[in-house]
Specification:
The chain is mainly beta. Strands 2, 4, 5, 6, 9, 10 and 11 form a seven-stranded mixed sheet that branches. Strands 1-3-8-7 form a four-stranded antiparallel sheet, with no helix packed on it. Strand 4 and strand 5 form a beta hairpin. The radius of gyration is 13 Å and the shape is globular.
């Protein structure tokens, strides 16, 4: 059974940092494209960042460039999203997903999804 499991969310003050993790079970990331998405209350889900697992090539949505870093640990079959300089507008449920197309931050290109982890940025 293919599963993606996110962890690392929580409550953080503006300007703070969090690191999200996405672990795969039931399959091994190889040529997958692993994306991070987020959905805030009342808003559509949006792509944040994606990584081509085999090469480590990364892509970012403009609003997180310079603040978020996506990376992978091939030994642990895990993808991370390091989030720095967090802002209240980063508050959302964050999802990881495995997809077919490199560099694409459109959710319909992704086939397997995790259950999400809540990130709240508030003072």
């Amino acid at each position: 059974q293919v599963q993606l499991v996110e962890s690392g969310g929580g409550l953080v003050q503006p300007g703070g940092s969090l690191r999200l993790s996405c672990v795969a079970s039931g399959f091994t990331f190889r040529n997958d494209n692993i994306g991070w998405f987020r959905q805030a209350p009342g808003k559509e889900r949006e792509g944040v960042s994606t990584i081509k697992y085999s090469t480590g090539t990364t892509y970012y949505e403009d609003s997180v460039k310079g603040r978020f870093t996506i990376s992978r640990d091939t030994a642990k079959n895990t993808v991370y999203l390091q989030m720095n300089s967090l802002k209240p507008e980063d508050t959302a449920v964050y999802y990881c997903a495995s997809g077919r197309a490199e560099g694409v931050l459109l959710d319909w290109w992704y086939d397997y999804w995790g259950q999400g982890t809540q990130v709240t940025v508030s003072s």
